């Protein structure tokens, strides 16, 4: 596991955008796994600006997002599809038909697993970007999630609903379920970059980096992956030995 210590989320955006753009420049058909949440926003801003400055071509790039709230239509302003269109896809020359976000209207795990089949069909994810939940979730794989899990319908924990309620008008508006790539789907990516900043992430970061590998901290499974880069600030690193 490679650890990059940065000052704040702005610096994370500068560094991670370069890591992602290096992939895009070296392979015009690259398949990226993308994340939502506040952690990657500065990364997407930097990608948009550098893409303009350096005239970077996204026309053959394919992307797969980690997750989507169950029950939200793609045009709902809190859907992750809406987030991705606004934060990134609308500002670069990627083809929308090459951008995949699980549908929030999926009703069965059988249907959800077609997402993994599609990822495999396209050739597998070259680089997966991740944020980190306060409770150690990656994607929406909450504590207790199966390490062998593929894309499925998952229940959100009370703490995740609370944490994500800041984006909704009322906590009761936050969906209680999501469709999320599983831990196995994530581990299948060739490379992984995870961004975690701020004190609230410190305990999850400690379990991510120091282990032990345990279902109590889903992120800890990343210790078994051979190409993970973790980008953290001082506050997120504060519990590390
Ligand atoms: C959400 C998302 C995750 C994200 C995490 C952290 O629940 N499903 O993919 O990584 O929470 O969010 P943030 O970056 O806003 O702290």
From TrEMBL:
<dbReference type="GO" id="GO:0004342">
    <property type="term" value="F:glucosamine-6-phosphate deaminase activity"/>
</dbReference>
<dbReference type="GO" id="GO:0006046">
    <property type="term" value="P:N-acetylglucosamine catabolic process"/>
</dbReference>
<dbReference type="GO" id="GO:0005737">
    <property type="term" value="C:cytoplasm"/>
</dbReference>
<dbReference type="Pfam" id="PF01182">
    <property type="entry name" value="Glucosamine_iso"/>
</dbReference>
<comment type="function">
    <text>Catalyzes the reversible isomerization-deamination of glucosamine 6-phosphate (GlcN6P) to form fructose 6-phosphate (Fru6P) and ammonium ion.</text>
</comment>
<dbReference type="InterPro" id="IPR018321">
    <property type="entry name" value="Glucosamine6P_isomerase_CS"/>
</dbReference>
<protein>
    <recommendedName>
        <fullName>Glucosamine-6-phosphate deaminase</fullName>
        <ecNumber>3.5.99.6</ecNumber>
    </recommendedName>
</protein>
<dbReference type="GO" id="GO:0005975">
    <property type="term" value="P:carbohydrate metabolic process"/>
</dbReference>
<feature type="active site" description="For ring-opening step">
    <location>
        <position position="142"/>
    </location>
</feature>
<comment type="similarity">
    <text>Belongs to the glucosamine/galactosamine-6-phosphate isomerase family. NagB subfamily.</text>
</comment>
<dbReference type="InterPro" id="IPR006148">
    <property type="entry name" value="Glc/Gal-6P_isomerase"/>
</dbReference>
<dbReference type="InterPro" id="IPR004547">
    <property type="entry name" value="Glucosamine6P_isomerase"/>
</dbReference>
<dbReference type="GO" id="GO:0006043">
    <property type="term" value="P:glucosamine catabolic process"/>
</dbReference>
<dbReference type="GO" id="GO:0042802">
    <property type="term" value="F:identical protein binding"/>
</dbReference>
<comment type="pathway">
    <text>Amino-sugar metabolism; N-acetylneuraminate degradation; D-fructose 6-phosphate from N-acetylneuraminate: step 5/5.</text>
</comment>
<feature type="active site" description="For ring-opening step">
    <location>
        <position position="135"/>
    </location>
</feature>
<dbReference type="InterPro" id="IPR037171">
    <property type="entry name" value="NagB/RpiA_transferase-like"/>
</dbReference>
<keyword id="KW-0378">Hydrolase</keyword>
<keyword id="KW-0119">Carbohydrate metabolism</keyword>
<dbReference type="GO" id="GO:0019262">
    <property type="term" value="P:N-acetylneuraminate catabolic process"/>
</dbReference>
<feature type="active site" description="Proton acceptor; for enolization step">
    <location>
        <position position="67"/>
    </location>
</feature>
<feature type="domain" description="Glucosamine/galactosamine-6-phosphate isomerase">
    <location>
        <begin position="14"/>
        <end position="227"/>
    </location>
</feature>
<feature type="active site" description="Proton acceptor; for ring-opening step">
    <location>
        <position position="137"/>
    </location>
</feature>
